[in-house]
């Protein structure tokens, strides 16, 4: 089994960096089976998910990761990654967020996001 | 496929109610494959997980659920549940928390927790 902790950390760094520099490039991380829940809205498949990301209105976004926890899931090769952090959009004050990813492997061994849920911790 | 949203909601209500009234009863929700990450500490199997719950020092605990998101996972019958809420221990001020569960089905069709990660949102 691959070292799931290393995969988890690399994924987190890649994902949030790409989100900051070029959200459209995240296409490669999703498939038509992928699911996104974003602040209670639900999206399925690469196209819906990337459209949602592109529709977010901010010009600048940066994520600061505070914690990340990684576990192997019950899907062979699957990895669950749980992230807490701070999100800064444009000139707004930073907001706390939490996000979970369930990565799965393609037949060729690369990883894609099967499930992800994002929530701001406002309430 | 079972209605994963109903299963998710029922699970959340059951889990946090049992946590409040009798944490030892949660034994039924775990197996020897279960994994818990709790504030960065990692536990595996029913015994380690329940011991951790029992070692928590508070007399009273109550959870107020603010959001819950549910998705089917890639494991047949599997469900991912993502919860944000407020946790109150004894007479302390409420604290925000986030928790994810990956439920799987046993051969007999009941659900158990394969993965769970718990974090207070302090940082």
TrEMBL record, chains A, B:
Chief site of localization: cytoplasm
Keyword Lipid metabolism: no
Record InterPro entries: NTF2 (IPR045875), NTF2-like_dom_sf (IPR032710), NTF2_dom (IPR002075), Nuclear_transport_factor_2_euk (IPR018222)
Domain of life of the native organism: Eukaryota
GO BP terms: mRNA transport; protein import into nucleus
Transmembrane segments: none
GO cellular component term of the entry, any: nuclear envelope
A Pfam family recorded for this sequence: NTF2
CDD domains: NTF2
Every NTF2 domain range: 7-120
Keyword Transport attributed: yes
Keywords recorded for this protein, A-Z: Cytoplasm, Nucleus, Protein transport, Transport
Localization annotation: Cytoplasm; Nucleus
Function: Has a role in nuclear-cytoplasmic transport of proteins and mRNAs.
Record-given protein name: Nuclear transport factor 2
Organism listed in the record: Stentor coeruleus
């Amino acid at each position: 089994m691959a070292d799931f902790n290393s995969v988890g950390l690399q994924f987190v760094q890649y994902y949030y960096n790409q989100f900051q520099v070029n959200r459209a490039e995240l296409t490669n991380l999703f498939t038509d089976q992928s699911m996104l829940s974003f602040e209670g809205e639900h999206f399925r498949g690469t196209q819906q998910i990337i459209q949602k990301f592109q529709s977010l209105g901010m010009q600048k976004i940066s994520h600061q990761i505070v914690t990340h926890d990684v576990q192997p899931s019950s899907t062979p090769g699957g990895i669950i990654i749980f992230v807490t952090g701070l999100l800064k959009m444009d000139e707004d004050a930073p907001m706390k967020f939490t996000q979970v990813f369930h990565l799965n492997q393609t037949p060729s061994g690369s990883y894609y996001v099967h499930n992800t849920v994002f929530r701001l911790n406002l309430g």
